[in-house]
Amino acid sequence: MKIQKLLAQKQGPLVMGIVNVTPDSFSDGGRYNSVESAIEQVAHMVELGVDIVDVGGESTRPGAAKVGLNEEAERVLPVVQAIKNRFDVAISVDTYKPELMAEALKLHVDMVNDVKALTMPNAVEILADTDAYICLMHMQGTPQTMQSDPKYTDAINEIINYLDQRLTVCNQAGINNDRICIDPGFGFGKTLEHNYQILNQLDKFNQLNVNVLAGLSRKTMIGAVTGKEPEQRVYGSVAGAVIAAMKGAKIIRVHDVDATIDALKVLNATISTETENK
Ligand code: 7PM
Predict the structure, then answer these.
(1) Which amino acid residue places its CA nearest to atom 3 of ligand 1?
(2) d(Cα 132, Cα 248) in Å, to the nearest integer?
(3) Which of 146, 165, 218, 220 has the fewest CB atoms within 10 Å, i.e. is most exposed?
(4) Domain count along the chain
(5) DSSP state of 22
């Protein structure tokens, strides 16, 4: 219930902070350091006022090698447990593997963020038994191949139709739309043109009557127009976050929580003059 409650209470969009649990953060190859480093990231984000933390073992990154279930579970689950023990923040797990979803749900995570939109066998059934919030993301192809030659005749409508079908599958399993958000999947089997076309027309996704999540933080679409490396893409990413919010996104997935929260506060102050009748 946590995410729905947050969505109902908050003026503007929720900010989801990305917590990467990757082998490079294992400074001695051990588990202790990866948990400690993740906890430090989370502590900082919580202090800044993040709404959700998204814990991922990076199996979904474009071009990335597949990570085995056990390795991903060993990275992600101890971090989820440590966050649970220390913070009151909503926790999302970024995975497409149903077995890991099930394990994470046993630890009472609040949300499952699936770049494969619950298409793996049993994923829908596992989520149907819970009250966890779900992100259904669109991807063309697989993380290994998706950027080689993405093709659409009508990107926006094809992505909307795909997400609509995934919503129907969820609904038939008893998962209501108020437990689901949809995500066009910036950078997941899309050219630069597709990505900016989607951002410009992000409001069209609201026709499905479910909340929209946007994740474009530090992505290639930002680097391509700013000419900057990932760590230098903060200003561009914040601009993207504000544009997405103005087009109705209700959850924004970001690396740079501090900068994004400030920018969204400015947007909210602007928009609230419309409704306060002053
Ligand atoms: C390297 C390249 C590492 C890209 C990680 C990534 C999304 C997501 C990711 C998104 C949702 C990133 C991506 N992106 N989940 N997981 N939406 N719902 O930039 O756009 O974090 S992984």
Answers:
(1) 61
(2) 22
(3) 165
(4) 1
(5) -
Ligand 1: centre distance to CA 215 (Å): 7
Among residues 219, 233, 247, 250, the one annotated as catalytic is 219
User: Can you give the C-alpha Rg of the chain in angstroms?
Assistant: 18
* CA-based nearest residue to 215, from 115, 86, 105, 123: 115
User: Can you give the residue range of the structural domain that contains 255?
Assistant: 2-276
Three-class secondary structure of residue 119 per DSSP: coil
- Report pLDDT digits (tens) over 144-169: 888 888 889 999 999 999 999 999 99
**232 close to 239: Cβ distance less than 8 angstroms:** no
- Specify whether 278 is catalytic: no
Task: Report the relative pairing of strands 251-254 and 52-56 from DSSP bridges.
Answer: unpaired
Residue appearing with tokens 């093709």: 151
How far CA 9 is from CA of 4, 51, 165, 241, in Å, comes to 9, 11, 29, 20
User: By alpha-carbon position, which residue is closest to atom 20 of ligand 1?
Assistant: 215
Q: The domain spanning residue 40 has which CATH number?
A: 3.20.20.20
* CA distances for 18 relative to 46, 54, 154, angstroms: 12, 5, 30
Helix (H, G, I), strand (E, B) or coil at 190: coil
